[in-house]
Design brief:
Number of domains: 1
Shape: globular
Oligomer: single chain
Low-confidence stretches: none
Order of helices and strands: HHHHHHHHHEEH
Strand content: under 5%
Structural class: mainly alpha
Distance between the termini: 49 Å
Number of strands: 2
Largest sheet: 2 strands, antiparallel
């Protein structure tokens, strides 16, 4: 199909950038003293740079994996690529949500909330984990104590930037971050559809990753329905590069490219 060929060409043009980002992940260039990004640090307690950089590395890894899988299999799987691209998208979104914030306190506060929510979720997960009856709970208790210590350090970081919230109760609104980044990218694009497109990557990627039927139902027009003698109908799902994975991949590349632009701008002294 001509549309698929066009999108394959677009992905091929993205490939050198993805490769370069993966190479940078193996040999990172850190923020220099006196730079904006270095000044965002709450020494020993909170690092905006580390939080953003990790998300950027995860994003580039999943983009690279998606390209490798497509080349190796030459198969357009119906749902398998979208979870990987979604992970890349979320990594890019979260990094840009940090790096594009206008003020230092805002960048620090966002990094604080992200880290606090991660620790809270880890603790909740450990507490909910079922253990075989009669087995000692020492390892889990020790791990939770370690996480509590990290929360205490984050509480100090919160105090240092003037935030009085209880870190152990902080939650990060991922949908809010997606919407914020969508609006930000709209100001850096001439495409008025970009906001809805990014929100679709987030929602459709989630449906694909969680095996939700709605992902297939929304794509009935591109699937093949086969009637059987029994009266039942079987739907054969088909992947669609030009309407699903292609736009999601390129959209993620746009966000991640902006992340690296801002990272490189902020990591040097001007």
């Amino acid at each position: 199909m001509d549309a698929d060929k066009e999108w394959l060409d677009r992905l091929s043009r993205c490939s050198p950038a993805v490769t370069a980002w993966r190479e940078r992940a193996t040999n990172p260039e850190f923020a220099v003293p006196g730079s904006s990004l270095h000044a965002d640090e709450v020494p020993g307690l909170l690092s905006v740079e580390t939080t953003a950089w990790y998300s950027m590395c995860v994003a580039s890894e999943h983009l690279d994996f998606t390209l490798d899988a497509m080349r190796a299999t030459a198969t357009m799987y119906p749902t398998a690529y979208f979870p990987a691209v979604r992970t890349a998208f979320m990594g890019a979104v979260n990094a840009l949500y940090l790096l594009a914030a206008k003020t230092r306190v805002e960048r620090q506060s966002r990094a604080l909330r992200m880290r606090a929510d991660e620790l809270r979720a880890q603790i909740v997960g450990l507490k909910d984990m079922a253990l075989p009856e009669g087995k000692p709970d020492v390892a889990r208790t020790e791990f939770i104590d370690q996480l509590r210590d990290r929360q205490a350090s984050l509480q100090q970081a919160a105090a240092a930037i003037g935030n009085t919230e209880d870190v152990s109760r902080m939650k990060f609104n991922q949908t809010g971050a997606v919407n914020w980044v969508s609006r930000y990218m709209l100001h850096h694009s001439d495409d008025p559809m970009i906001t809805g497109a990014f929100q679709t990557i987030w929602r459709d990627g989630s449906a694909a990753a969680h095996g939700q039927l709605q992902y297939a139902i929304m794509r009935m027009h591109q699937n093949e329905a086969v009637s059987r003698e029994s009266g039942n109908t079987v739907v054969h799902m088909r992947g669609n590069l030009s309407q699903d994975v292609g736009p999601a991949f390129v959209g993620t590349v746009l966000v991640l490219n902006e992340c690296f632009r801002l990272y490189d701008l902020r990591r040097v002294k001007h």
